[in-house]
């Protein structure tokens, strides 16, 4: 570790040590000196074991396997909570006053504006680019988000205490109070059950998403836009419009029914009502605060006329809004209680303009009367929140599997005596669908009684038809592959009476679907009726998770890149604007990694000021859980999309493309040669990882498998990644990639690979992501899982996988010409190293507990809870797990 990196860690280590000491005191008070000494002994032994001390490793294992049942839970809890507190300290370090330059880079928007405006860029183009940005971050539920909402709130309070401690003006008494508050919070955390007693419902997940907005994003959005406006004004002398909103938020929580039988039309309606309720409640709080501020009498003619020359014209308007918001909250409360209140919507905030127009009037009046300084305070913050969140808070996407829609039409055609739609070829399907879409008579008979599954799809479409356009985002079709998949949804929405032209979005997920995406969209956009429906805008979703699970990360990444290139060309030819929706996960194996890098590595022309990206569970908390961290994340997204639009990456050379094509083809062979063709792979996977046990954890509302009796092919991408991160082999994030890179080097293409890594952002990002997962992989720990949990006759496969891992590490180091992984990102490398001595004991204990639970018919409650805690702890330590 360099001296500079060590200095950078001084402040972080100080906070980690401070929080760890308080946690130790809490455990000591609760469980006594002997327990704390044992925990500390195991921690020190784990650290020595990391340094290659075999005797320490054996001693640590002996202590862990000898833990009595009554100590299993508190031990797992101790290491779990230390990792959570280390995460908090690290997250705080990025916004700390003592943040080092290696961690806290200058604001990316400010840097980008400087680069652009100091060159030949026209200021007007930059301003217009910012005005037209359309970045939609889609919050999704996550089965690997371990932390309960109540604990997340306590973690945020710990950050507040750390922030306060940096105030040099605190008196001694205030410092003692701050330390007391920290001790209280950590004691609360210790005595709170970290594992949910019951699996969360989709409504619980939606409420979790809303809590992130309330706790952080509600403040971060106006803070970010004020910062952005100041930067633009400083560089150009111009201000951004008051209604500018480069970033908006949507959600899948309560709308994503793909493989989740618990997301019904009833649930979706409740989530829509809760979203509105949360927005009304927060706006009411803002309006009440604004009432206290806008005590001015002077008003322009329009406001004076509206308020009959009132002595408090601004407050008169605000009092009416306050009343309407209270009525709205009462109305929504009644709906959430299952009632159907009959209310005059003129008494509510029912449309965005009901709130926007009066506030704009106040802003204009203050500006006209020389009080723009006041107008640009809280009032402008509220206007900017309205531009971002509207009155629905989050636009809810609907997602459903393509076969669920075709099954509706098939059941209907059979009932009508037209044959079985599912047995028709694609041309017959399209002809039928277009005939019905352009026809005037209804297709669905009023006396038809469909089966339950079909009826639920129809109820969802009926629900969509009743919603205001701004309440909903896109209708996403999973596993889409043909034009009929899109036309089917459009027909069902038409039959439901949907008058708002909702965006219907095909999601291309598997390798074959990505390769066929351009042909599918070409055929679709060649249909005159459909092209008219799009009104010049086509959204397409690119799946990262299932394509990587299908073909491995390297082949999937290249298929995603090529699909985007082809879709850009298809839409350009059809004179339709393309919005790409990136279904990225938190982990590398699911398209995760730094968003800034990921956006800048997209094909030139594929961003063009517009992008949608999923943000999932744990990553929502890490990126947006604290207001200052959220402002940084919003700035990263804004600068990346601006740069990708105005300073796009170069077109890859033909030699690069040809080389990448060979790498992709070889990597998929290496990947599938193990995952699909190795007969021992499935039993090895199920034995060497806690995959089976993960399905029993009450983590997310969605089942781990699409089909209850399915095998690996039906396993969702998230638990597939999560299981391999638990035993630290990280297999889905690298299998096939390193082997293909070595093949390329063996062909004499090493210099070409180095050129690609230096000059092609797409390839450089892939190598950087591989370095991260190789750094996090721990083959010795994976081998320990194997020795304890896997039958000896399967050990040959584990040996082969570990050899593949080392081969990949060597290939990447040869390419980068570095002596160690992540040499160019010391902060990230040291961050991984910092956690390892605390994750390792949890891994060793988890192995012991897995062995016990698999031997015993009825494992004790303490063993089961301790196992869950080890899974939670490893997830906390690994960060981007699924």
UniProtKB/TrEMBL annotation:
Give the first-level EC class, as a single word.
lyase
- Tell me the InterPro entries matching this sequence: PEP_COase, PEP_COase_bac/pln-type, PEP_COase_Lys_AS, PEPCASE_His_AS, Pyrv/PenolPyrv_kinase-like_dom
What are the protein's GO molecular function terms?
A: phosphoenolpyruvate carboxylase activity
Reaction catalysed by this enzyme: oxaloacetate + phosphate = phosphoenolpyruvate + hydrogencarbonate
| Pfam families xrefs | PEPcase
Needed cofactors, names only, are: Mg(2+)
Q: Which residues form the active site?
A: 142, 549
Q: What EC number is given for this enzyme?
A: 4.1.1.31
- Provide this UniProt record's keywords sorted from A to Z: Carbon dioxide fixation, Lyase, Magnesium
Is the Magnesium keyword given for this protein?
A: yes
What is the top-level taxon of the source organism?
A: Bacteria
Sum up the protein's function in the record's words. Answer: Forms oxaloacetate, a four-carbon dicarboxylic acid source for the tricarboxylic acid cycle.
Subunit details for this protein?
Answer: Homotetramer.
What protein family does this chain belong to? Answer: Belongs to the PEPCase type 1 family.
Protein name listed in UniProt: Phosphoenolpyruvate carboxylase
């Amino acid at each position: 570790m360099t001296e500079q990196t060590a200095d950078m860690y001084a402040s972080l280590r100080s906070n980690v040590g401070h929080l760890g000491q308080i946690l130790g005191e809490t455990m000591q008070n609760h469980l006594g000196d002997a327990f704390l000494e044992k925990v500390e002994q195991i921690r020190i032994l784990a650290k020595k074991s990391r340094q290659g001390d075999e005797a320490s490793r054996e001693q640590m294992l002996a202590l862990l396997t000898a833990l009595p049942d009554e100590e299993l839970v508190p031990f797992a809890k101790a290491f779990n909570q230390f990792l959570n507190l280390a995460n908090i300290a690290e997250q705080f370090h990025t916004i700390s006053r003592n943040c080092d330059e290696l961690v806290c880079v200058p604001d990316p928007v400010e840097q980008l504006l400087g680069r652009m405006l100091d060159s030949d860029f026209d200021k007007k183009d930059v301003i217009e680019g910012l005005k037209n940005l359309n970045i939609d971050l889609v919050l999704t539920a996550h089965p690997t988000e371990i932390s309960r909402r109540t604990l997340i709130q306590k973690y945020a309070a710990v950050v507040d205490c750390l922030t306060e401690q940096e105030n040099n003006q605190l008196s001694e008494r205030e410092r003692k109070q701050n330390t007391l508050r920290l001790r209280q919070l950590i004691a609360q955390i210790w005595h709170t059950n970290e594992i949910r007693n019951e699996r969360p419902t989709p409504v619980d997940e939606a409420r979790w998403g809303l809590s992130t907005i309330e706790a952080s994003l509600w403040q971060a959005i106006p803070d970010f836009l004020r910062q952005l406006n100041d930067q633009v004004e400083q560089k150009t002398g111009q201000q951004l419009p008051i209604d500018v909103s480069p970033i908006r938020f949507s959600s899948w929580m309560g709308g994503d029914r793909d493989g989740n039988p618990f997301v019904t039309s009833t649930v979706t309606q409740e989530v829509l009502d809760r979203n509105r309720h949360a927005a009304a409640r927060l706006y009411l709080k803002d309006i009440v605060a604004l009432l206290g501020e806008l005590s001015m009498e002077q008003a322009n003619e329009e406001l004076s006329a509206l308020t009959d020359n009132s002595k408090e014209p601004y407050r008169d308007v605000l009092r009416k809004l306050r009343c309407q918001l209270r009525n709205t909250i009462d109305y929504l409360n009644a709906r959430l209680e299952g009632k159907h209140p009959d209310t005059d919507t003129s008494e509510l905030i029912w449309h965005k303009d009901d709130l926007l127009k009066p506030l704009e009037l106040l802003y204009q009046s203050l500006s006209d009367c020389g009080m723009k300084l006041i107008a640009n305070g809280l009032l402008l913050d509220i206007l900017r929140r309205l531009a971002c969140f509207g009155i629905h808070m989050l636009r809810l996407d609907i997602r459903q599997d393509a076969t669920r829609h075709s099954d509706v039409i098939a059941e209907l055609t059979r009932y009508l005596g037209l044959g079985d739609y599912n047995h028709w070829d694609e041309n017959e399907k399209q002809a039928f669908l277009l005939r019905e879409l352009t026809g005037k008579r209804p297709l669905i008979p009023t006396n038809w009684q469909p089966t339950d599954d079909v009826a639920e799809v129809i109820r969802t479409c009926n629900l969509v038809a009743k919603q205001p356009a701004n309440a909903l985002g896109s209708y996403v079709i999973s596993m889409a592959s043909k034009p009929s998949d899109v036309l089917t949804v459009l027909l069902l929405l038409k039959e439901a009476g949907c008058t708002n032209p909702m965006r219907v979005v095909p999601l291309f997920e598997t390798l074959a679907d990505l390769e066929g995406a351009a042909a599918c969209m070409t055929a679709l956009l060649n249909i005159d009726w459909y092209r008219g429906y799009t009104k010049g805008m086509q959204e397409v979703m690119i799946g990262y998770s299932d394509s990587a699970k299908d073909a491995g990360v390297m082949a999937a990444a290249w298929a995603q890149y090529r699909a985007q290139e082809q879709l850009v060309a298809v839409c350009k030819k059809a004179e339709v604007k393309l919005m790409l929706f990136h279904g990225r996960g938190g982990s590398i194996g699911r398209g995760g990694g730094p968003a800034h890098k990921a956006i800048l590595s997209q094909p030139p022309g594929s961003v063009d000021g517009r992008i949608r990206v999923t943000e999932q569970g744990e990553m929502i908390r890490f990126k947006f859980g604290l207001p200052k961290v959220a402002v940084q994340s919003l700035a990263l997204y804004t600068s990346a999309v601006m740069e990708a639009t105005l300073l796009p990456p170069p077109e890859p050379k033909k030699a690069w493309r040809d080389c990448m094509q060979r790498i992709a083809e070889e990597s998929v062979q290496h990947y599938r040669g193990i995952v699909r063709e190795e007969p021992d792979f499935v039993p090895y996977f199920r034995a060497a990882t806690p995959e089976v046990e993960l399905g029993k954890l009450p983590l997310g509302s969605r089942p781990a498998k699409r089909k209850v009796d399915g095998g690996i092919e039906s396993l969702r991408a998230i638990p597939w990644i999560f299981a391999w991160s638990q035993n630290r082999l990280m297999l889905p994030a690298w299998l096939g990639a390193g082997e293909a890179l070595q093949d390329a080097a063996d062909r004499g293409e090493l210099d070409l690979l180095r050129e690609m890594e230096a000059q092609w952002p797409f390839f450089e990002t892939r190598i950087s992501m591989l370095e991260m997962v190789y750094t996090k992989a721990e083959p010795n720990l994976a081998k320990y899982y194997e020795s304890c949990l896997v039958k000896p006759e399967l050990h040959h496969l584990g040996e082969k996988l570990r050899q593949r891992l080392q081969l990949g590490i060597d290939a990447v180091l040869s390419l980068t010409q570095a002596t160690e992984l992540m040499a160019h990102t010391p902060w990230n490398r040291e961050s991984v190293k910092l956690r390892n001595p605390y994750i390792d004991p949890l891994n060793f204990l988890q192995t012991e507990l897995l062995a016990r639970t698999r031997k015993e018919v009825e494992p004790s409650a303490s063993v089961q809870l301790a196992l869950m805690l080890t899974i939670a702890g490893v997830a906390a330590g690994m960060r981007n797990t699924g």
